What we know:
The protein is of the alpha+beta class. The protein has five helices and seven strands. A hairpin with a 2-residue loop joins strand 2 and strand 3. It is globular, with a radius of gyration of 15 Å. The two termini are 27 Å apart. The mean pLDDT is 97.
Amino acid sequence: MIKIRKYVEADAQALWDIHFYTIRNINIRDYSQSQVEAWAPDCPDLFIWKNRMRGLSPFVAEIDSVIVGYTDLQPSGLIDHFFCHHEYQGQGVGKALIKHVFRIGSLRGVKRFYSEVSITARPFYEHFGFKVIQAQEVEVRGQILKNFVMEKYS
Length: 154
């Protein structure tokens, strides 16, 4: 069973690990080695990461007390981070997280959900009713990565 709870600072390292290993093991299908290394560097600044997570106030998914994914929902409707542990993909973690986002968004009165979505994540978002608004290229540590601005109205 997937449990979703609020982030606590003790989760920071586990969320970095999910971010890092998902990009390095899953997103490598659609991005080059140089791109994934820029996106998920070997030596992160954990002070900056902790501050980022505190600001995002993510939702954390667990299976049997193991953190298996996380996401967030900003007041504007932005989903800034959405990551599922690379070893738990295809087990309903993403579905549970996105349904939680929609539920919380409904309670908060969010009418438009949107995100900057990787090539890899695009089919997942499309499955849940998001539409591509535009393709874009973003620079990350000197590398250019293609992604998509996607949105869904409630």
